[in-house]
Specification:
This protein is α/β, with parallel strands linked by helices. The protein has two domains: 26-277, 3-Layer(aba) Sandwich (Rossmann fold); 282-315, no CATH class. 47% of the residues lie in helices and 11% in strands. Strands 5-4-3-6-8-7 form a six-stranded mixed beta sheet. Helix 2 (60-76) packs across helix 7, helix 6 crosses helix 8 and helix 6 (169-182) packs across helix 9. The protein is globular.
Length: 315
């Protein structure tokens, strides 16, 4: 498609946004993007969320989250900092932390680090145990559970009220369809942009839930941010039901721009409010003391298993 003129100022444009049916120059694309995130925040988030942690891995989504949300929180006078989860991936974790610190430095924010190593193991250990089939679960699935646990525990123990993550529209579509296919409709409540905290569970937020991954890519490019270009060495690259369903919808979205956004908004605003959850009570993990659907919690069970397997390997 020939490059057009910016819808706002008429200058030569750089970004074509099909779901907005508009071209934007660099400056006005940044304004457009920030305005979209601000609308999501104003609609779904409390005006004063309390001290906030922005979880940043260094990828395009979390870096886009950092810049766009930090602007909102600064205007509201909300104290906020950056959280980096160090999973102990040789080379990759150190390089990612450098990039996170560089971006946070541009905004004058502190970077706080939660290290998996402090719990007696790293993702490198998990990867080795999965490769030798001593743990029969995908590394990426385990990694997701670890990050959720560490984010919540770190935030709670350091007095934060809210943790923000960079989950985007692409993620949301895959999870929504997989939940519908599996019949686990109750899982959809996790997709709310803002989930209130209770007990030792800190409130969680996903301000980019209606934003395409490619929009985040354009945004970090437009603002001159740095992102981690390398792919995690433990990523398998294997397809899943989530990714295949997501890709199918995004393929249709290319022919009918905005379809995915409409699906996401209808899920959040119309479907989720009608879901009636069963009376499932969380228990307190007897090992770490945090709320969980089982006792011990998934993280503590994993921690015990890894410790046992690593110890037996040394004998």
């Amino acid at each position: 498609m020939p490059r057009g003129k910016c819808r706002v100022c008429g200058r030569e444009a750089e970004y074509w946004v099909p779901w907005a049916n508009a071209w934007f120059c660099r400056d006005h694309y940044i304004e457009y993007y920030n305005r979209r995130i601000k609308r999501v925040w104003d609609k779904y988030f409390p005006n004063d969320p309390g001290d906030t942690l922005i979880a940043v891995s260094g990828g395009k989504d979390s870096v886009a989250l950092l810049y766009s949300v930090s602007k909102i929180l600064m205007e509201k006078g909300v104290r906020h900092n950056v959280l980096f989860i160090d999973l102990g991936i040789p080379g990759y974790s150190d390089e990612s932390l450098k990039i996170v610190k560089w971006n946070a430095g541009r905004l004058g924010l502190n970077v706080e680090v939660a290290r998996l190593e402090d719990y007696g193991f790293t993702l490198r250990d998990i990867h080795r145990l999965v490769k030798t089939r001593r743990i029969r679960r995908p590394v990426c699935s385990i990694c997701g559970m670890i990050k959720r646990y560490l984010m919540n525990r770190y935030a709670y123990e350091h007095g934060y009220s809210l943790v923000l993550t960079g989950h985007n529209l692409d993620d949301m579509i895959g999870f929504t369809l997989a939940s519908l296919v599996s019949g686990r409709i109750e899982d959809l409540v996790k997709l709310r942009p803002y989930v209130e905290g209770h007990d030792r569970l800190v409130a969680r937020g996903k301000p980019l839930l209606f934003t395409y991954g490619v929009e985040n890519k354009w945004y970090v490019e437009a603002i001159g941010a740095r992102i981690v270009e390398a792919v995690c060495p433990y990523r398998t690259g294997e397809s899943s039901v989530n990714t295949e369903l997501r890709d199918a919808v995004l393929s249709v979205d290319k022919k009918h721009p905005g379809l995915a956004i409409l699906m996401a908004r209808n899920t959040v605003d119309k479907l989720i409010p009608r879901i009636r959850l069963p009376g499932k009570t969380l228990v307190r993990c007897s090992v770490c003391g945090y709320p969980s659907s089982s006792d011990p919690c998934g993280f503590c069970r994993l921690r015990e298993k890894v410790s046992r397997l690593l110890s037996s390997k040394k004998k």
